[in-house]
Every structure is written in C-alpha cells, then in structure tokens.
Amino acid sequence: MAQGVEERARTADRSDARVGQLPRPYLLFLGDTVEAGFAKTAFGLRDWAPELCIGEYALPSARISLGLPKLSPSEAYDRGARALVIGVANSGGFIAEAWVPALVDALEAGLDIVSGMHAKLGQIAELRYTAERLGRRLIDIRTPPANIPIATGLKRSGKRLLTVGTDCALGKKYTALSIARAFAARGVATDFRATGQTGIMISGGGIPMDAVVSDFAAGAAELLSPAAAPDHWDVIEGQGSILHPAYAGVSLALLHGSQPDVFVVCHDPSRTRLLGDEDFAVPPVEEIIDLTISLGRRTNPAIRCGGISLNTSSLSDADATSQCDAESARLGLPVADPVRGGPAFDALITDCLKA
C-alpha cells in the first residue's frame, strides 16, 4: 500500500514539474467574450497572480475588461511578456476561428501561447505552421498525466476539504485558494490542489479533471491528494456542480476520489439559471448540502459541511453582510464571502478546522 502511494506522489510531481516551466509573464487574451463568467481564467490569473499579468488583449467585439493595460502582442512583448494566455473558458473549450489571426499575431510578436482549452493548439494548422517557422511554443495545460490509476475508494491518511457548487464559475477556485491561504496563516500544514486550467496556471501544478477519461477521474482525484500526515490538509478546487446536467460527472468523481472530511458549498445568490444551460434553475444550497453528504459518505462516512461561500460581488458591502448573516441564520452554518474576508470568513475557517 505504501509503495503505491509513493508511486502516485511521484506521478503527481512529474505533472507539477511540467506545468511549472511555463513562460512568464503573461498577456491575457479575452477573445470575443461578452460575459465575464466565460473569462474566468483571465480573471483568476489577474486576481491570484497579478505579478505575472502584463496586460490584456481582446478582439473588438469583446465586451469585458480586466482593468489591465490594453496592449497589442508586440507592445506586451516590449514590456516583458513572454506568453499569451488564452483567458477564455467557454462551453466546450473550443478555440474560435475568429481568434486565430490574433493568436498568429502573438506568435509573430515573439510570444509563446498557453491554452487551457479542450481544443489543442497544435491541431490548428495555421498556428502549428507559424510556431514551427518561428520557433515558438504551443503549450496545452489541459493535458492530464499518463497512467492515472483507477480509484480504490480506500481511506487515506491526512485531511481534505473540497469546494462544491450550486453551478459552474461562481467561486469554487477563489474559495479554495482563500481557504488554503487562511489555513496556512493559522499555521496549518496545507496544500492547494488545482483541478482546472486556471488553478494549475496559478499554483504551478495539478490535474485538469475535465480532461481525464471518466473511468479514471476518481483515480485522478486520489492521485491529486495522496496520503499525508494526519494533521495535513489538502484544499481541493471543485469543478462543476453535482446537479449540473452537463458537468455532474466530474463533480461526482472529485467527491468520491478526494474523500473530503469537509466540504464548502459555493453559491452566487444573484444567479437564478445555470450558466450555459438556462433551461435549468440553480438548485438551492440545502439540496447541494444533502446530496453531497449522501453521495460523499460512500468513500468518507464522516463527511460534513463546513459552511457556505457566497459570491457577493454584485452586492454592496452592507447588502453582502446582510445576505451572509441571513443565510447563516437560515442554514445554521457559517456563511461568508472569502474575497471580502472579515469575521464571518474567520468563523467559516474555524468551523472547517473543527475536529
């Protein structure tokens, strides 16, 4: 058993090393995106790795901005950028044909291209030929490590926290990063475990869960959070939602494979319909709590909810505080916006760390 755990750790280390060699700093490409939820990679890098972000670059039809300097690829190169990162996370992970001329311009300007899309950069002939001609790199982050094992479901040492959500793109990554940072500030041995392209770019390692063949997804979650010291916490970035018609599969695999002792439900109170699937309503928080406990008990009978993370970015400070207080009273759990921090978030962290 111990030898198997060590081999899994070595495999995870090889994946981390590959990602850690990205060319930096970045010019963040927004494409023709008109909705902020579909540019979460760009926003995540801006918020959690600002020292790596030189500026932003978008097509004229784009309707969002990161608030960074608007630069052409050549201007960004002159300011020190060495890669253009595709900051879009659209449904299906495709690279639009309308983006290709802009990506070619980036290669011509001296930049490598880093992508977290499902579509592979090298499969686009114009990009491949241009990169080969100029000696540039096309780097696909959404590539899982080789030889992922099938999950065992067996209990591992160490402690784990998983962020789950009522929908996609509403704060699971931000919440996990905030919790990992807060744990570390309290002197708790902690690792943030990235499961999506943005988290991998921020942290330098991880496994892109939605690129793993489904039979091996729970095994990938086990590989990502191996056996550890009894007082060590892995804070695992959640993906999708267990009640999302399109993405529930990866959510369930993460739940079973990570075997969380604690989970935190992430929710945006301003959102009523599922992102990218508006025929379905966003489920209530309590339904996600009950379902996560019911399904999570399969691999960890002691699983519990540590609290709720509310994305209150659309609210004023006063309204955000009022909303968190009301939900906490209604649910009987700590409720906070991790980005705002404060006493409510401190209370959530305390509850998560309870024995």
From TrEMBL:
<dbReference type="InterPro" id="IPR011669">
    <property type="entry name" value="DgcN-like"/>
</dbReference>
<dbReference type="InterPro" id="IPR035086">
    <property type="entry name" value="DgcN-like_C"/>
</dbReference>
<dbReference type="Pfam" id="PF07755">
    <property type="entry name" value="DUF1611"/>
</dbReference>
<dbReference type="InterPro" id="IPR035402">
    <property type="entry name" value="DgcN-like_N"/>
</dbReference>
<dbReference type="Pfam" id="PF17396">
    <property type="entry name" value="DUF1611_N"/>
</dbReference>
<protein>
    <submittedName>
        <fullName>DUF1611 domain-containing protein</fullName>
    </submittedName>
</protein>
<feature type="domain" description="D-glutamate N-acetyltransferase-like C-terminal">
    <location>
        <begin position="150"/>
        <end position="343"/>
    </location>
</feature>
<feature type="domain" description="D-glutamate N-acetyltransferase-like N-terminal">
    <location>
        <begin position="66"/>
        <end position="144"/>
    </location>
</feature>
<dbReference type="InterPro" id="IPR027417">
    <property type="entry name" value="P-loop_NTPase"/>
</dbReference>
